[in-house]
Amino acid sequence: MENVIVSPIEREGFELVELKLSHYKSSSRIQVYIDSDHGVMLDDCVRVSKTLSSVLEEAGMFNGKYTIEVSSPGLDRPLRTFRDFSRRIGETVEIFFEDAGTASMKGKLVGAEGDEIALQTKDETRKLGLAGIRMGKIIF
């Protein structure tokens, strides 16, 4: 399904962050989380929902009833991609590493370039490679 909805979402100016599909006895629920550099407003969710409804009808992907829910991923979602981190420069974050033996780090996200992020801790600014990062979370 993802291959069917990514292009229409991108044409609307957004990126697909997450897709969840739930099946019930006589219906299905499609949850689509979108984001963009300028954020996501309610009108954006309505527009993307209508677009996806048309696309899914044309593709004939569902035989029974289904609902589409489009929303933003929220501020508490995990940061995983370069784009996720670059949107949150200036925020205080906690970084969790792929290596389970490495302790998490907290600091201010001060940069994102190439395949690295820059994290300002109490003592220093550290450059961290995205390949070694499992995820980041914004600290409120």
How many domains make up the coordinates? 2
CATH architecture of the largest domain: 2-Layer Sandwich
Number of separate strands: 8
The average pLDDT is 93
Fold and architecture overview:
This protein folds into 2 domains: 2-71, GMP Synthetase, Chain A, domain 3 (2-Layer Sandwich); 82-138, SH3 type barrels, CATH 2.30.30.100. The longest helix has 18 residues, at 42-59. The mean pLDDT is 93. The strands form 2 sheets. A 5-stranded antiparallel sheet has the order 7-6-5-4-8. The protein is elongated, with a radius of gyration of 18 Å. It has 3 helices and 8 strands. With 140 residues, the chain is an alpha+beta fold.
Structure summary:
The protein contains three helices and eight strands, in the order αββαβαβββββ. By secondary structure, it is α+β, with helices and mostly antiparallel strands. A five-stranded antiparallel β-sheet has the order 7-6-5-4-8. A three-stranded mixed β-sheet has the order 1-2-3.
